[in-house]
Phosphopantetheine adenylyltransferase
Amino acid sequence: MAETKAVIPGSFDPITYGHLDIIERVAHRFDEIHICVLKNRNKSGTFTVEERIALIEESVANIPNVQVHQFNGLLVDFCDKIGAKTIIRGLRAVSDFEYELRLTSMNKKLNSDVETLYMMTSTNYSFISSSVVKEVAQYKADISEFVPPPVEKALKEKFGN
């Protein structure tokens, strides 16, 4: 049986062109892509979960097989809930891999039916992170190369630009 659903988890605070690069490339390989916005208890977000979901939905509106969800709990439980057996994780650099490997190992222990696939972000997006984009935006610098227009507008409003 072919896999039809994949989950792309993250905090997406905010979504960047690096995230969209992965989403767009994966969307052609699965029938359904489920973006799972997770609330990280260790981070206070710039945007609320609801704002992040709205920004993601605007940013992926041209990709018909993408759905956006919020989930509080274990990612593997979300996968079970929607019937997905694949988690997609984007990697920017080797330094991301150690953290991702720990998450993947725990998820595999919790649910051996769920596999994690890693995708390298395209080189031109490998230096972009949500936290760096937010920092640059606070200084009123041009961030149009890093985030889609709805996110650029929201960041300008958030930081009073």
Q: What stands out?
A: The helical segments are 17-27, 49-59, 75-82, 94-110, 130-138, 149-158.
